[in-house]
């Protein structure tokens, strides 16, 4: 009996550690920002595909990513985030040519064909704004923009990396929460007036990190 209790306790502890290690952003975080939530779901499905060891699971993940990221889907209004460079010393010389958080990458992986990056070319986004960057190992970069109201920023990195993101507004510093074992950062804040927000993204890993910023 005691042995059974100890065994069950060990299993519960293991499950607890596993859950904490792969903590997810709660769905409620995107209730008022469905476009951001949809694009983020697509990014998560790409991550699932990248990490899957089973071919069927991998193909299913990329298919779901295609559905979430399809630019021809009704209501899709994702586009570029218009940021001003503040410190780009940590930016890699050239972005990774073999990966992107977008529909064309998910489709190429699903169809098992070569990927030809096209970037974000649909103009400025309205309710889902995107910015791609690739950081050097242990590098960081900062960008700024003027924002107001209910603000939200998600940073998502390619598997194999770990990132940290900080938002600075005036003298206030907001540290983004970390999810998905360090692949995802999330922050939300309120601004009653328009102000300059500076986003600093740091690559905590010893390899280049391909990252997409998603804002509302």
How would you describe the overall organization of this protein?
- Helix content is 29%, strand content 34%.
- The chain has 216 residues and is of the alpha+beta class.
- Strands 1, 2, 3, 4, 5, 6, 7, 8 and 9 form a 9-stranded mixed β-sheet that branches.
- Helix 2 packs antiparallel against helix 3 and helix 3 (55-69) runs antiparallel to helix 4.
- Residues 1-21 have low confidence and may be disordered.
Layout of secondary structure:
Layout (H helix, E strand, L loop, with lengths): L1 H20 L12 H18 L3 H15 L8 E3 L3 E4 L15 H9 L16 E8 L4 E18 L5 E7 L2 E4 L1 E3 L4 E20 L5 E7 L1
Parallel strand pairs: 1-3
Antiparallel strand pairs: 2-4, 3-9, 4-8, 4-9, 5-6, 5-8, 7-8
């Amino acid at each position: 009996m005691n042995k059974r209790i100890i065994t069950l306790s060990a299993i519960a502890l293991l499950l607890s550690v596993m859950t904490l290690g792969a903590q997810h952003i709660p769905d409620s975080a995107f209730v008022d920002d469905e476009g951001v939530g949809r694009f983020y779901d697509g990014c998560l499905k790409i991550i699932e595909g990248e990490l899957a060891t089973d071919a069927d699971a991998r193909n299913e993940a990329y298919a779901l990513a295609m559905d979430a990221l399809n630019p021809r889907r009704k209501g899709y209004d994702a586009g570029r985030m218009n940021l001003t460079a503040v410190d780009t010393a940590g930016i890699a010389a050239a972005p990774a040519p073999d990966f992107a958080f977008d529909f064309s990458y998910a489709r190429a992986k699903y169809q098992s064909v070569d990927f030809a990056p096209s970037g974000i070319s649909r103009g400025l986004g309205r309710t889902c704004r995107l910015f791609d960057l690739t950081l050097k190992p242990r590098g960081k970069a900062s960008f700024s923009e003027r924002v107001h109201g209910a603000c939200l920023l998600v940073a998502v990195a390619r598997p194999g990396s770990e990132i940290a993101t900080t938002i600075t507004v005036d003298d206030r510093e907001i540290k983004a929460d970390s999810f998905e074992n360090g692949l995802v950062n999330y922050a939300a804040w309120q601004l009653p007036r328009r102000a300059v927000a500076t986003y600093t993204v740091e690559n905590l890993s010893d390899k280049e990190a391909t990252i997409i910023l998603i804002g509302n």
